[in-house]
Amino acid sequence: MTYSDFTLTSPLSDLEHTSAPLLTVTIVWHPDRARIGEQFVGGLGGDAIELNRFVPLFMRPGGAGLALGHGGISRQPLRLVRGADDGVAMTLPASPMVVEVNGQVVKEGIRFSAEQIGAGQILTLGRAVVLCLHWMHRLPMPNAVPGLAGVGSASIGVREQIHMVARASLPVLLLGETGTGKEIAARAIHALGGRVDAPLVAVNMAALGEATAAAELFGAAAGALPGVVDAREGLFAQADGGTLFLDEIGNAPAAVQPMLLRVIEGGAYRPVGAAQDRRSSARLVAASDQDLDAATFNRALLHRLEGFVIRMPPLRTRREDIGVLILDLLRRQDIDAELPAGLVAELAAHDWPGNVRQLAHVLQRAALVLKEGTLPTLAQLVRGARAPLEEAPAPAPAMKPEASGPRRRPSALSDADVLAAMAGNDWNIQAAAQALGISRPSLYKLLEDHPDIRRAETIPESDIARAMVDCAGDVERCAALLKTPAEALRRRWRLLRSE
Fold first, then answer.
1. Transmembrane stretches, by residue range (predicted)?
2. Domain holding 70: CATH number?
3. How confident is the prediction for the chain on average, in pLDDT?
4. Residue 56: is its pLDDT beyond 70?
5. SS3 at position 136
6. With contact defined as beta carbons under 8 Å apart, do 433 and 408 qualify?
7. Which of 3, 127, 425, 441 has the fewest CB within 10 Å, making it most exposed?
8. What angle do CA 26, 30, 36 make, to 5 degrees?
9. pLDDT tier for residue 326 given thresholds of 50, 70 and 90
């Protein structure tokens, strides 16, 4: 046990040890991007969740509930039953809908252990909608923090701790693996506090040399440094009244660690070569991906830095956040890419040693591949990536993988191939693209040039109305009858009924 185990973090972090978790299903990916991040929060042991096109209702905090609704989702339910030991038994629906777990097709019911649910299980329904089955240790709440997207317990807890400590004057220590967003959290603490109009000054402590670290941090009097005639202002002076972010604090040169302790305790410091102390009211936020309890780090300094500790969770422990993170990263990086559900499922099941930073880089590579009209796989995008079932044990022996089709070039596909794929996948474009091994944009181009497939907007209103009557309002059956994509037909039918 380390000293950090006894320092102030937030009482919220103890909830997972004192409260029974709630079985939750989060929408990781959906053809309607507005649905990504919506959740259904289930109950305790013995409760059953039935998933089909119409139930349950997924929602955001304070919002209205909506069913999954997608035409590729079966009307027959997929059942999730939680046992007394918190294991969850999954029974497949009595329908031809393809069900995948962590990227692998399953043909029989399986059982997840409580630990597997804790790690997050990725379910893909109808090759179109990606869900995450996981525990929630607190109810969803709208506590947004810029740059820190996420809908799971860990993300909610981190954001609440940031809101809690932002207006305090305590030093904050951010701990977490590389790429988990420690600098973003530091900037959020500054932005949400009372110092938002004052400067935020950041320094990478690993980049400071032993000889110059003290002058960089605390400044130097005129003539105190070789070759420097004028007085030099340090980072503490620059951050006076604002926030000083000490990144990679574990790499702080040993000589300046006692100096840092002094300024934290009383605000006083002495520039190199100066005769008098100066003072700084800068609020300190430090970050590290190291074990600071190691003997090489000044323990008195560590105790002072741990005024409030926030532990940034690794991405592999919050798979339910992958969808909203992808949307946020695509927006921030100004990437316009239509990611296939199969790729998103692979991304969600990956362990991400580089965390959110690595995910951002992979999305950039994926966008480049998709622009070429080919469908990328995780193995092509991430060096050393393994198949999902190699990364974690299979939930049960009944889990049977089904080989996926080979990746193909759109130019190699015939009109008959495209027509067969659409007919065999309920006229769902995403599912048909996955079956053909091409991207969704590539399939759109093939559909535009296809002699037998009709564009929904060009079909006469009378033909659609007649087909809807013949098919009793079933859009997928109507799409098959009219030979047009189901999503476009559904939009056209809604528009016609609203006129």
1. none
2. 2.60.200.20
3. 87
4. yes
5. strand
6. no
7. 3
8. 50
9. very high
